[in-house]
Specification:
The chain has 223 residues and is α/β, with parallel strands linked by helices. It has 5 helices and 12 strands. The protein is 27% helix and 27% strand. Helix 1 runs parallel beside helix 3. The chain has one domain: Nitrilase/N-carbamoyl-D-aminoacid amidohydrolase (4-Layer Sandwich).
Length: 223
């Protein structure tokens, strides 16, 4: 990293039946982050934080869509790079668990498709490539989604591509969250990078979002 980077994480509760409510919740959290920490340049949110996990066949939509249009305005209004969790993306006959990335002008600059869906519970199609992106004058960011974290080769590939901060978008509502904390700390130590795990609360997960430094120390953690 060539410069300092302020980052934020939205540990939000998800209503799987009310997309608009989730969008407004997200917008409010981002506004609060920028109000209290105006230096923040990138904000991320949990996996599937707008649609929830059930009934993905019915919820899948093409990108761009009304959700991404809303997120574009959040990014532009707050002058941030924005990773708004993930959505079910319909592409031809396939459905992916996809994470769009917005720059501070509200443009979608990349979209990551989850490479390791949580089988057998998650039957979306696997993505076929890892993703890094650059913030000018700052450095390179890597992105993965929930169960991706359990595959160390994926994290190592992001680091080989130059990522020094890796965001892990998560919707972990099971006891596996305890293991994810360990995996995040181990990945940070092994790869000498920062790991940022963003989890939901309530229906959307067990919380404990965290920022881990390259020594494996948890420097910030949600409840």
């Amino acid at each position: 990293m060539s410069g300092l980077l302020g980052l934020g994480a939205c540990q939000m509760e998800v209503d799987p039946d009310d997309v608009q409510k989730n969008l407004e919740n997200m917008a409010g959290q981002v506004e609060l982050i920028k109000y209290y920490s105006p230096w923040v340049k990138i904000v991320a949110a949990p996996e599937l934080c707008f649609q929830g996990a059930p009934d993905f066949e019915k919820k899948a939509i093409e990108i761009p869509n009304l959700i991404t249009d809303f997120c574009s305005k959040i990014a532009e209004t707050n002058n941030i790079y924005f990773i708004p969790g993930s959505i079910y993306e319909k592409k031809g006959d396939n459905i992916y668990n996809s994470s769009p990335v917005f720059d501070d002008k509200g443009n979608i600059i990349e979209t990551y498709r989850k490479m390791y869906p949580w089988r057998p519970h998650e039957t979306t199609v696997s993505g076929d490539k890892t993703l890094v992106f650059d913030i000018p004058d700052i450095g390179r960011i890597g992105l993965c989604n929930c169960y991706d974290l359990w595959f160390p080769e994926l994290i190592r590939d992001l680091v080989f591509k130059g990522a020094r901060i890796i965001f892990v978008l998560t919707a972990a509502g099971t006891q596996d969250r305890c293991q994810e904390v360990i995996l995040c700390r181990a990945a940070a130590i092994q790869n000498q990078c920062y790991m940022v795990s963003v989890n939901g609360v309530g229906y959307g997960g067990k919380g404990e979002s965290m920022i881990v430094d390259p020594e494996g120390n948890i420097v910030q953690k949600g409840v």
